[in-house]
Write a structure and sequence with these properties.
- By secondary structure, this protein is an all-alpha fold.
- It has a domain at about 65-90.
- It contains 4 helices and no strands.
């Protein structure tokens, strides 16, 4: 019989109440006050849009990653060939 009552308690728990301690309440209030003050200070901070001068030949520069990918200069074409033939010899 004791096993049955334990099973019913597991399946149908009695109602419970949550008690918030005074210290927890004070902590929540302090955090709320801090977050409001922090948000007010953040309003003064403004991020400016940073723009860079456009370089029309950016992908043709010798050491640019785009030039290395495209292989438009003789150096990168030779590098691609060395890598391909080196990879095939492995």
């Amino acid at each position: 019989m004791a096993g049955n009552s334990m099973t019913f308690r597991i399946l149908f728990p009695s109602s419970y109440s949550v008690e918030v301690s005074k210290l927890r309440q004070q902590l929540d209030e302090a955090h709320l006050a801090w977050s409001k003050e922090w948000k007010e200070r953040q309003a003064d901070f403004k991020i400016e849009n940073i723009r860079f001068a456009h370089d029309p030949r950016w992908n043709k520069r010798f050491f640019s990653l785009q030039a290395a990918h495209d292989g438009e200069s003789w150096f990168w074409q030779a590098t691609h060939m060395i890598v391909v033939f080196g990879g095939l010899s492995i």
